[in-house]
Amino acid sequence: MFQYVDAGVLVVGPDGRVIDANPAAQRLFENGNPLNQSLDTLNASLVDTDWDDRQKPVRCELSHASGETRIYEAERAPIFDDYDQFNASVLLFNDVTELDAQKQELEQQRDELEETTAQLERKNERLDRFTGVVSHDLRNPLNMAQTYLDLSREQGQAEHFEKVADAHDRMETMIDELLTLARTETALDEADFESIPLEPLVEEAWNTASTGGATLKTDIPWNCSIEANENLLQNILENLFRNAADHNEPPLTVTVGTMDDDGFYVEDDGTGIPEENRTEVFEHGYTTAGTGSGFGLSIVQEFVTAHGWAIRVTESNDGGARFEITAVTIDA
Fold it and tell me: Is residue 137 in a domain?
């Protein structure tokens, strides 16, 4: 059995030198026949303080004489003489190269399956959210539009038509923001990030957002750039700008600035957000403005999280709302 077993077998004496090796073991080492060589010469990983634990094989890479390197698990069994004195050790080498490759492939498949499952869960959560919006949140302005349309038919008063138009505008805003969430992939990887000059993007977002008669002020270093996804970052800024304009009366000033190379802020000099409401403002559908959709800040939080950033609400020096976005990579 010692001569013809397929696995490599070494017999090692008390001094750590090989005193016998079967033909399979003699093919395991690049320097040829292991007889009379010490274990540390053959492979340093074979000299291990855990050999006394028979349940723990030692893993090692062995370079064959052919130049091929394969992975083995070496198991040890002690040999005792007639007086129960330790005499030698038998080392059995099991080739686990293919097994390791299969394990890695299975682990990769498991990781891919977990990622697919996570994506499906995110899509299901988003679908549930959209279903709730269509069935409940959109129904409110739709019912209001129908009510005032009936009144306008009966009374012919112009203010009723204005209420209908306002309701339609709110529904249009809600639909646009829902489509933004539905169409945007919010699981970002490194390839989705780029260095973006902050001030030009702030100005572009300001010109795109509906901010009424509000004024923009910036406190940004001239060469400041942010590692971000440009589309999502612009959408974050646009929604914060619209949120400030929707919840405050003019005159209003909105300021964007950086914070010690760790993030940036968007603040206003309006009425602010009460401390007890600063967490729930990010919940979808939450709004205190009659014309608001309630999804702007929910979108902001989702896009901030997609970047790996954090956002919190506090009070500006002028008593208005201040949104601080941190954990941002800034080059200034």
Answer: no
pTM of the model: 0.54
Phi first, then psi: give them for residue 72, nearest 5 degrees. Answer: -130, 155
Q: Tell me the per-residue pLDDT of 53-111, one tens digit each, with 9 for 90 and over.
A: 455 778 888 877 677 888 888 888 888 877 777 778 888 998 999 998 899 999 999 99
Q: Do 193 and 326 fall into the same domain?
A: yes
The dihedral sign for the CA sequence 211, 216, 220, 225: positive
Distances in Å between the Cα of 86 and the Cα atoms of 13, 83, 162, 226, 316 are 9, 9, 99, 67, 78
Query: How many domains, in total, are found in the chain?
Result: 2
Task: Report how far residue 298's alpha carbon sits from residue 281's, in angstroms, rounded to the nearest whole number.
Answer: 8
Please provide residue 225's backbone torsions phi and psi, each rounded to the nearest 5 degrees.
Answer: -130, 155
Shared domain for 205 and 328, answered yes or no, is: yes
Q: What is the CATH number of the domain that holds 40?
A: 3.30.450.20
Banded pLDDT at 310 (limits 50, 70, 90): very high
